[in-house]
Amino acid sequence: MGGHVSITDELGGRDQCCLIRRSGCAVALNTQHLMRVGAYAELLLDKGWRSHLLRFAPDRAAFNTYGSATVEYKGFRRDVLFVGAKARIDGSDSLTSLRDDLLAKGRNNTMCIADDDHRKKWDTLVKSTEMGPVIVWLVASGARWTLVAYGHSGRVRIRDLECRLPVFKELAPLLCQLRCQYNNL
Fold first, then answer.
1. Helix, strand, or coil here: 184?
2. Which helix (H) or strand (E) holds 7?
3. What are residue 104's DSSP bridge partners?
4. Domain residue spans in the chain?
5. How far apart are CA 71 and CA 63, in angstroms?
6. Global pTM value
7. Are 1 and 20 in contact (CB under 8 A)?
8. For the segment 116-129, what is each residue's pLDDT rounded down to a tens digit?
9. What are the φ and ψ backbone dihedral angles of 72, each rounded to 5 degrees?
10. How many CA atoms lie within 13 A of 82 on its CB side?
11. Under a CB-based contact definition with an 8 Å cutoff, are residues 69 and 165 in contact?
């Protein structure tokens, strides 16, 4: 059965996800994939990202989309945006449970995350924050939460930024400001 959507970036990279699937004798909409495609489109259309700076990875990676930017610190490009999209805000496999697990683990690095998907996301953040702070954008229908993850004293900390995801051109200055702020803790 059809229902596949392809995302192609400016460099010719292509990824695919299935929005419509068979469910018994009926057809079902895969709302989690729909949220992932919608978040990717929102980054392009509303947040000023260029497609060659985004990697759409619906199933294979810990996060659904990765955004790269050249950050003034050492002047190289690295992943600075990690997008996690969920089909629902509350309930099983929800955005709230992902956010709560990440924030709890950020307060207590010895805590064990039971959910495999959440643990995979945490492990990705641990590796990524070695080069500086990163933004985690969590998306579901009716919710957009922006977190920052950063390394501090050999541990990863994560906190709610309590603001909207900034547009692309404001992201690098924000990350440099956060780097200075966290280095002075």
1. coil
2. strand 4-8
3. none
4. 31-183
5. 21
6. 0.83
7. yes
8. 889 999 999 988 88
9. -55, -35
10. 26
11. no
